[in-house]
Amino acid sequence: MAKNRAQKEQTVTNYGDKLSRSRSVVFTDYQGMTMAQLSDLRKKLDEAQAEFTVTKNTLLNLGLKNADLPTLPEETQKGPIATLFSYEDEISPIKLLVKALKDNQVGKIKGGILDGQFLDSAAITRLSTLPGKQELRAQVVGTLAAPLTGMLNVLQGNLRNLVYALDQIRIQKGGE
User: How far, rounded to the nearest angstrom, does the alpha carbon of residue 117 sit from its chain's CA centroid?
Assistant: First the structure.
């Protein structure tokens, strides 16, 4: 069913709002995905505070313009587009999307926007290999804790050596 002008304007406004709230946006060709695969992907992305929707190219470009973001290059606009809006973590939803496309062997990344700049599909795929926020936080905590753990082992080493020396003295004196 065709949308009237007011519905299209509301859609453009919604796209502009989603784009302005998003930390990263990815455009993908979703052709070949079944409804079950799309539903499963949407459910996983929803848990990651992201949204995956089928978008109309012309209305999406108007939404990009309203959000002061670069419009899509011509090659990105060919064919249908589904858009991933990442609201919290920039990378984790991209990782989920790339993994789902690879696992299902359908669709492809067309490009994306990060920090107000358009990135091609190769750059988005490279971004999907980066660790997410939680992984980076765990790495930082591990790096900060490593010297403390080493120092604790050194301090315990002296105590451990004292116990071994006292045990050897006890054995030499004939104690059990």
Answer: 17
